Automatic annotation (TrEMBL):
InterPro entries: Chromosome_partition/occlusion, HTH_ParB/Spo0J, ParB/RepB/Spo0J, ParB/Sulfiredoxin_sf, ParB_dimer_C, ParB_N. GO terms for molecular function: DNA binding. This is ParB/RepB/Spo0J family partition protein. Belongs to the ParB family. Gene3D superfamilies: 1.10.10.2830, 3.90.1530.30. SMART domains: ParB (SM00470). Keywords: Chromosome partition, DNA-binding. It comes from Mucilaginibacter terrenus. Pfam families: HTH_ParB, ParB_C, ParB_N. Residues 45-135 form the ParB-like N-terminal domain. It comes from the Bacteria.
Length: 302
């Protein structure tokens, strides 16, 4: 990648997302604050919700329904305090750059139009801004961060050092997140759902055998092991296997384990496959709510 291209991409948020305190609303007396076709790009104006389409590059897939309801209630009382950011597609169509939670909550609150910053951005800049904005969120889980990092590497053609500079992380931090994607899908889902921590996952990454990773993960979930306990268990298994306490459960054949991991990845939940000596078995697909059950049934074309 040339220096000129890197510099252009590096502008990212700084060039395309001005500080909110330095931008004043561009009001139009004829439209009640709504943007006219001749409104200057880079201004703030009221944009109809019906004219905003979601960001196709949005890396975030999980939105807490209760948190959205709480935000919607706040917006009903006080209005939307922080504008969303969009890019103009044409006179009556905009594409969201950042602020999908605010957009969703505004729809729940029944708003017809909301304040928005209007920016210019091509597809590559859209992807970069969406990824960086999400990475900087405090509530983003480790797997979402890792997937965002991987997308930036794959789609923006960045090296790890360049990526670290773009998101203000050192290379070792970037590497640690990317390594999470090497864990079995079942463990990735557990990390995403908060059953285990980043510390647990890092300890599991020091184990080469996926079957052993899954065995230790099972103990973490069942026994509530601390990160320190997991690190001790890993050392015990790696360096003194003859002394490890307890008997490891029989591992699934590789083919069945792969089926279980593939199903877990497909349904985004911890699928459990059981097989007995006669070859009979069952598949368990847990769900968290009626909505989650509906999602799974829809995937099964039920």
């Amino acid at each position: 990648m040339s220096a000129e291209k890197r510099n252009a991409l590096g502008k990212g948020l700084s060039a395309l997302l001005n500080d909110s305190a330095s931008v004043m609303p561009n009001k139009n007396n004829n439209t009640g604050g709504q943007l006219s076709e001749s409104s200057a790009l880079g201004s703030i104006g009221e944009v109809k919700l019906s004219e905003i389409e979601v960001n196709p590059f949005q890396p975030r897939t999980e939105f807490d329904e209760q948190a959205l309801s709480d935000l919607a209630a706040s917006i009903k009382l006080q209005g939307l305090i922080q504008p969303i950011t969009v890019r103009r597609i044409n006179a009556h169509k905009y594409q969201l750059i950042s602020g999908e939670r605010r957009l969703r909550a505004s729809k729940l609150a029944g708003l017809v139009q909301i304040p928005a910053y209007i920016r210019t951005a091509n597809d590559q800049q859209m992807l970069e801004m969406a990824l960086i904005e999400n990475i900087q969120r405090e509530d983003l889980n480790a797997i979402e961060v890792a997937l965002s990092f991987q997308r930036m590497i794959d789609e923006l053609k960045l090296k790890q050092e360049e990526l670290g500079g773009r998101v203000s992380k050192n290379r070792s931090t970037v590497t640690n997140y990317l390594r999470l994607l090497k864990l079995p899908p079942t463990i990735q889902i557990s990390l995403r759902d908060g059953e285990i921590s980043m510390g647990h996952a890092k300890a599991l990454l020091s184990v080469d055998n996926p079957a052993t990773q899954l065995y230790i993960h099972q103990k973490i979930v069942k026994e509530g092991l601390s990160v320190r306990k997991v690190e001790e268990l890993v050392r015990e298994i790696q360096y003194a296997p003859e002394k490890k306490e307890g008997k490891q459960p029989e591992q699934l054949p590789y083919r069945i384990q792969k089926v279980q991991d593939d199903l877990a990845s497909k349904f985004s939940t911890k699928v459990k496959v059981k097989v007995n000596a006669q070859g009979n078995g069952s598949i368990e697909i847990p769900f968290l709510s009626e909505d989650d059950l509906g999602r799974i049934l829809e995937m099964l074309d039920w």
